[in-house]
Amino acid sequence: MNLRELWSGAKVRYQKGGLLSVSKNAGIYLFGSAVVRVVSGGYSNVLLDPPEFKRKYSRDCFWELDDDINQVSKQLCLTLKPLPDDDSLDFQFSPIFEFRTPFVAQIEDVHLVGPHATVITSEGTVTGDSVSDQRDRLRWMLNSAIVSFPYRMSGYLRGKSTRRCDRVVPVGAVLYHQTGNYYHWVMEHLLKLRHIGHYEAQTGKSVTLVLPSHTPSYVYDILRLFGYDTDQCLIWDGEPTKIETFIAPSFPEPTPASIEWLRSTSTDSIDREIESPKRLFISRQNSSKGRAIENYEEIREVLSEYDIEPVLCEEMSIQDQIAAFNNADLIVGVHGAGLTNMVWSDATTVVEIFNNYVKNQFCVLANLMDHEYSAISGVPVDDGRYEKNKNIVLNPHRMDTLLASVLD
Prior knowledge:
Layout: H1 3-40, H2 50-57, E1 62-64, H3 74-79, E2 90-92, E3 103-113, E4 118-120, E5 126-127, H4 135-148, H5 150-157, E6 167-174, H6 182-190, H7 192-203, E7 208-212, H8 217-225, E8 233-236, E9 241-249, H9 256-267, E10 279-282, H10 296-305, E11 309-311, H11 318-326, E12 330-334, E13 349-354, E14 357-359, H12 361-368, E15 372-377, E16 379-380, E17 392-393, H13 396-406
Parallel strand pairs: 2-14, 6-7, 6-9, 7-8, 10-11, 10-12, 12-13, 13-15
Antiparallel strand pairs: 1-3, 3-4, 3-9, 4-5, 16-17
Helix pairs in contact: 1-4, 4-5, 10-13
């Protein structure tokens, strides 16, 4: 990790938790990196990236999923911009998808260790709950495991099992995210169920899903829709665990095939006859994280002129969210996790609202799903929040003009 990456990581920690968070994570990093350097010679000898993983494990028990990745390109993430003609906006290309051929593999005899269920192979290498290029995340998970179990981890990194695990899982996979963020759970973890289901179909084996203790309730609701009962789940409590056969999916990416699988599998499992408005506005007015509309009453009048109904996704069950957005002809919302609900729609129009901080993730997602997409920016309010979370003053006339245009 170079100085630029360290500085970037420290900024993120400071923005999230202040100096205490920076100090705590600096200590974890320094101790963890020292152990890795002494035991293994450095992170490069330990962390498995996708090419190295495929070289090691693609010979046996490795399955590629049927996915026409020729339809999509990484360039889409690097070129597609909401509001491309406004140079005053702070624009971020994020996330960047590689659109590699998806796969699922099995690895024999791995250990899960630490507060974040870090995956250690019998050879002393580390992979994630999915195989990805997220080396910062892997380092963080590895360092946390080392701090929690230094003696045990020093043995595992040498390829030696220093202590017997009291808990053994025959076949398992990990769905782990450190927060309850809806976008990350749906797009980065629940999409793994496609890979896991493919493995189960190929082998006839049932997979135990390892989930964190803070898993949101809607995740269990979606798991049930996809045929996984709670008795197939192991709630992670940090106790070192051996998995005799670990199921490692590639990092799920929103290819048209994967999104269609997610949408069709979920909507086939619910009552789609539930009555709901055709035009929805995803409200963030109750969010503690910001990006609320300061002049909401003015904007609500504009929305009502077009029969656009506000919805509070956090107050809806996941079944009702899937049904409502599957039924929607128009989705309007401030940039945020609620816009993930466009994945339940077969064909819709999306209008995304920004302050002056613009990310293209939902623009890319809408493009991949062949949704119509438009965007509008407002004036950020100097409310002391981090730049991307500042509340917004939105021009009612501009909003009216945009809605008239997309609904024409």
